[in-house]
Design brief:
Helix content: 10-25%
Number of strands: 4
Radius of gyration: 18 Å
Number of helices: 2
Order of helices and strands: EEEEHH
Length: about 70
């Protein structure tokens, strides 16, 4: 069995996904399953929060300060 030329008809076109920084509101549209590689993910009170590269860099010490000692 061969597929018709010009793509597939299964509706699997990748849709952009928007991520918004929980601190400053910067947004990024990506075509992957996760946020941009330079963004940080935090789970706070059971909720996933994403932080942009700028906010992650500016708050690195407080982020590291919340890690268990096993991580460092």
């Amino acid at each position: 069995m061969t597929s018709p030329s010009g793509g597939s008809d299964d509706g699997s076109a990748v849709q952009p996904r928007r991520f918004v920084c929980a601190r400053c509101g910067t947004s990024a549209d990506v075509l992957t399953d996760g946020p941009p590689l330079t963004w940080t993910l935090s789970v706070e009170d059971g909720a996933r929060r994403h932080y942009c590269e700028t906010c992650s860099r500016e708050n690195l010490r407080s982020i590291e300060g919340r890690l268990d000692s096993d991580w460092w």
